[in-house]
Amino acid sequence: xxxxxxxxxxxxxxxxxxxxxxxxxxxxxxxxxxxxxxxxxxxxxxxxxxxxxxxxxxxxxxxxxxxxxxxxxxxxxxxxxxxxxxxxxxxxxxxxxxxxxxxxxxxxxxxxxxxxxxxxxxxxxxxxxxxxxxxxxxxxxxxxxxxxxxxxxxxxxxxxxxxxxx
Length: 166
Fold this sequence. Notes:
Oligomer: single chain
Order of helices and strands: HHHHEEHHH
Number of strands: 2
């Protein structure tokens, strides 16, 4: 029972420690964790708007603007007009961002190796698979709550019935 009661605390603690470790490693690059997060999400979502990137990264929109201003001044990102909405700007990486992203991913791989040092590849695979399913389940329940707030169907009940099938 203690494992169930402590699950959320343990997950938050691991996340906090990982973030702090990552932040320490990236200080040499003069990048903060939020900058690395923005670049990593942008790499996977080029062409998104500033507001969408803020939403994806869960970074406050005004903070995201400051992050992007700095990265644009450093030549890492560029803002281009959105052809479908003249009020919006789309975000793209510049060639200068590639070495920075390569270094970010090297740091991530180093930390990954450190935190999984005492686990087998099979254990890593199972852990990451389970963690991915937990994330999907939470996303489904979050989406279900949003639909319920707007008078739509909830997803929470159907997500629970699918447990173990993923």
